[in-house]
Amino acid sequence: MSWAVLVLAGLVEIAWSQSIKPTENLTRPLPTLLCLALAAAAIRLLSKAMDGVPVGTAYAVFTGIGAAGAVTLGVVAGDDPVSAGRVAALAMIIGGVVLAKLA
Q1: Confidence (pTM)
Q2: Residue range 17-76, pLDDT digits in tens
Q3: N- or C-end of the chain: fewer Cβ atoms within 10 A?
């Protein structure tokens, strides 16, 4: 169950990362409230996942999911460039998350 909560925390972190830019440097009240709520939810879920997953592993997986998701969304939904280096980096992040789960 802790691993499922950890994956959910990572997914919420992806949403949180995408909610930062619309705040326009925290000057827009509603986007800022959403951003803060998503950040709090991600941290709460991460904290809960740490009940059953070691802290270092949980944090590494959490940030890995967030990073991979943010890069993927940037390429798919934004105008972030695709390059061999970015694809290789994404593959290494995903590989690290999988290895952390298996180890």
Answers
A1: 0.87
A2: 999 999 999 999 999 999 999 999 999 999 999 999 999 999 999 999 999 999 899 889
A3: C
Separation of first and last alpha carbons in the chain: 17
Question: What is the rounded distance in angstroms from the CA atom of residue 51 to the CA atom of residue 98?
Answer: 20
**Is residue 75 within 8 Å of 86, Cβ to Cβ?**
yes
Alpha carbons 103 and 92: distance in angstroms, whole number: 16
Cα distance between residue 90 and residue 93, in whole Å: 5
Domain with 17, as residue range(s), is 2-102
Total domains present in the chain: 1
